[in-house]
Every structure is written in C-alpha cells, then in structure tokens.
C-alpha cells in the first residue's frame, strides 16, 4: 500500500475516501430532489419576490420608475434582472445553509448520525459531501432563475453569465464554511432552524439582495463585507451588465478567494470543537 502511493498511484486510503465522498454526495442529492413539488416552489420564490418589488416600485415611481432605479443603483441593467440576481443568490444561500445545517439534525432524528460519527471515516468528508451536493441545487437555481431571466430580458448581456457562474461557485466555498458553523451549532443545541432562518433573513437585509449595499449605513456595510454573498451579488451584477467590469471587480473577487481559504478552515475548526464536546457529554445521542 505504501509502495503504490510512493510510485504516484492513488493509495487505498484516497480511493476509499473518494468512494465515501461519492456515497455521501449521492445520498444528499437524492434527499434534496426527493420532493419535486417543494423544489419547484423554491424556484418560484425568487420570481415572486422580484415581481413584488418591481410592482411596488412601478406603482410608486410611475413612468419614471426605471430611470429613478438606474440613478439610485448606478446600474444600466433591467431592474428585474438586477433584482433577480440578488433574489437568486439569496435563495441559493438559503438552500446551502439549511442543507448543511439541517442535514445533521435530520440524521440525528433518524438515529443515523451517531452511526455516521462512529464510522471509520474522516469527519470532514461527511461535511464536504453534504456541501458538494449543494452545487447541484445551486446550478439548477442559477440556470432556472438568473440565466433564464437574463436570456429573456437582456440577451445582449448573456456572455456575462459565464463569469457570473464562476463568481457564484467561488462564493459557495466560504458559504460552505459558514454552513459548517451551523452544523456545529446543530450538534450542540439540536435546533438548526432558529439559527439558519435568522441568518438567512439577516443576509437578505444586509447583502444587497434588492438594493445596492452603498445605501446602507457605514457600520452595516462593514458587517456585510464579512458575508461572501455581498460580493457575489455585487460582482455578478457588474459582469452581467458588462464583461469589461470584470477588471473593476478584481479586488472583491480576490476578497472572495481569500474567504474561500479562511472560512472553511475556521468553520471546520469550530465544528471539531463542538464535536469534541459532544463526545465527552454524549450530545450525539441526545434529542
């Protein structure tokens, strides 16, 4: 086994880890797609929220609503496109945080969490496999909500979708790190929904889902700058508006890449801290 690894071939351990990761990924995807009606509802929510905001803005602003919107946001995008990007990213973050945060609680209720934790696998694989399954949901949401809207209402900006999807994928990595924190809170407090729902509402308010974060007070902007979705929404709007804006967004993309390195490490460290406590106090088997 050691000799094969030294010759550059994959070791038995690495192959086993890939098999474990694949099994967890497959199971989570099946769970996420088990109820198609619920998933269709998730796809409708961004359209509903965006349409409601546009309807209110049009009724208040009248004929000058679009020009007022452009002046206030500094964006030349169609208002519906501008807003659907924020709503789509917000719904994706909602699905990711709840998917990671509540999956452990579901396992705990079913009585399989303790068995999973006793299995001879790296605990990191359990979290990563769960997180990777969210990429499937994220891609479907991106195509069905953001890409579909751009192709219908702003087909001339379609080239920016390629870069926008890349930015979204980079932004998912630090979001996974935040999800690991929620997974740790589930192990400790057994109640994922209070934490995830509070965080999702907070993210909707301070990450610029339906407006530019520049209208927020400075101290709120400072808080929002610690959340990856803030930069994801901002940069996706810029590159869809014009691919040339990619150079202007280089600084915030670098921030996202930095978050992608730091947040998963911090999140997993936080998870290991609570896991250690759970082993001492027997929290894994408590409801």
What does the model show?
- It is a single chain.
- The protein is mostly helical and 287 residues long.
- It has one domain (13-285).
- The protein has 12 helices and no strands.
- α5 runs antiparallel to α9 and α7 (123-153) runs antiparallel to α8 (160-189).
- It starts with a helix and ends in a 6-residue tail after the last helix.
- Mean pLDDT is 81; it is low at 1-12.
> Helix and strand succession?
HHHHHHHHHHHH
Q: Give the tally of structural domains.
A: 1
Name the overall outline: elongated
Radius of gyration: 21 Å
How many alpha or pi helices?
Answer: 12
Summary tags:
287 residues, mainly alpha, 12 helices, elongated, disordered N terminus
Topology:
Layout lengths: L1 H5 L5 H21 L3 H26 L3 H9 L5 H32 L2 H6 L4 H31 L6 H30 L2 H15 L11 H7 L3 H14 L8 H32 L6
Helix pairs in contact: 2-7, 3-5, 5-7, 5-8, 5-9, 5-11, 7-8, 8-11, 8-12, 11-12
Task: Describe what is shown at a glance.
This protein has 287 residues and is mostly helical.
